[in-house]
Design a protein that fits this description.
The complex is a heterodimer of chains A (111) and B (116). Chain A has strands at residues 9-13, 18-23, 31-38, 45-50, 55-56, 61-64, 70-75, 84-92, 105-110. In chain A, the strands form 2 sheets. In chain A, strands 1-9-8-3-4 form a 5-stranded mixed β-sheet, with no helix packed on it. In chain A, strands 2-7-6-5 form a 4-stranded antiparallel β-sheet, with no helix packed on it. Chain A is mainly beta and 111 residues long. In chain A, strand 5 and strand 6 (61-64) form a beta hairpin. The mean pLDDT of chain A is 92. Chain B is mainly beta. In chain B, strands 2, 4, 5, 6, 9, 10 and 11 form a 7-stranded mixed β-sheet that branches. Chain B has a 4-stranded antiparallel β-sheet with strand order 1-3-8-7, with no helix packed on it. In chain B, strand 9 and strand 10 (104-107) form a beta hairpin. The radius of gyration of chain B is 13 Å and the shape is globular. The chains are: A mainly beta (111), B mainly beta (116).
């Protein structure tokens, strides 16, 4: 079962920062927070992952609270192509642990 | 990033026939692959874990005799939907585990099955 809670939908204006929240209050100490997104009729795309420190890459930033019970994915300058369903998932880093998807957040970027 | 390819991307078949979907890791070897199914406006549902050289592990409620999984090589896993019916129409997605120590997972583009 998915161990995360996300709002079902969000809207954001093009060019603005999109902040997507995720609650994972039952996360264990060695579980990482992963973010994937799925554009319509495509396979999921990896965005970013982190353990407890904030992470940034070319796609996004990940802010994890100190107690690790929640996190926020930030798309700094959203474009229309960022319209997708965003999934927050917790899992172990190592090993063959499966990814269990929740319902995700449907992000719509408006022109 | 690594590339995972699925084939076919779209397939239409008649009720009662069997359909095979291939999942290939093009530039890495994957001892473990996962198969998901996704219905319209729903999330991905894990069907099974495919391990090279051994039997697949199916999630609860997934019929192993209906959804046959074969992982015969380190770069290829196949999902065969046997005796397909219209309710099997769905988007099937595979993912491949690139490395155990980093947990890197890469997804295929998905295969849309329509059963008439």
């Amino acid at each position: 079962d998915a161990k995360t809670t996300q709002p079902p939908s969000m809207d954001c204006a093009e060019g603005r920062a999109a902040n997507l929240p995720c609650n994972h209050s039952t996360i264990s100490g060695n579980e990482y927070v992963y973010w994937y997104r799925q554009i319509h009729s495509q396979g999921p795309q990896y965005i970013i992952h982190g353990l407890k420190n904030n992470e940034t890459n070319e796609m996004a930033s990940l802010i994890i609270t100190e107690d690790r019970k929640s996190s926020t994915l930030i798309l700094p300058h959203a474009t229309l192509r960022d319209t997708a369903v965003y999934y927050c998932i917790v899992r172990l880093l190592q090993g063959a642990q499966k990814l269990v998807f929740g319902q995700g957040t449907r992000l719509t970027i408006n022109p | 990033g690594a590339v995972v390819s699925q084939h076919p991307s779209r397939v239409i078949c008649k009720s009662g026939t069997s359909v095979k979907i291939e999942c290939r890791s093009l530039d890495f070897q994957a001892t473990t692959m996962f198969w998901y199914r996704q219905f319209p406006k729903q999330s991905l549902m894990l069907m099974a874990t495919s391990n090279e050289g051994s039997k697949a592990t199916y999630e609860q409620g997934v019929e192993k005799d209906k959804f046959l999984i074969n992982h015969a090589s380190l770069t290829l896993s196949t999902l065969t939907v046997t005796s397909a019916h219209p309710e099997d129409s769905s988007f099937y997605i595979c993912s491949a585990l690139k490395a155990l120590n980093t947990g890197e997972l890469f997804f295929g583009e998905g295969s849309r099955l329509t059963v008439l």
